[in-house]
Amino acid sequence: MYEWMKAFHIMSVLAWMAGLFYLPRLMVYHADAETGSELSETFKIMERRLLKAIMTPSMIASWIFGLATAYAADFFTDGWFHIKLLLVFLMSAYHGVLARHVREFAGDNNQKSSKYYRIINELPTLLMVAIVLIVVFKPFL
What we know:
Layout: H1 2-32, H2 38-73, H3 79-106, H4 114-120, H5 123-137
Helix pairs in contact: 1-2, 1-3, 1-4, 2-3, 3-5
């Protein structure tokens, strides 16, 4: 079962990460769209569907399969796993920030510039690089 849990964990993380990369990119363009325009309304639909249908279910699946894999492999006592867990908590918090921005756009209350969304679009990449390096090299055993 370990290999199946690990495989589903990897698949769910890939789907989650795709959304974490794409949603802020949509917001870059949405921030420049005229409020109330057809383009703005289209972005609202795209952002909501991406968040609700792909990102949030993938995040939940990532947590479930990740914790099940960690339990099966007895990673909970390893120092590297504690660091990975902290970084995944940060990734989840970033997901929450994006969800808040989706609600702001939905209510036509966005106060952020496209530059802001370009900058925050880099955060999941940094977290992903750190997480992958920690999982592969397993420092702090």
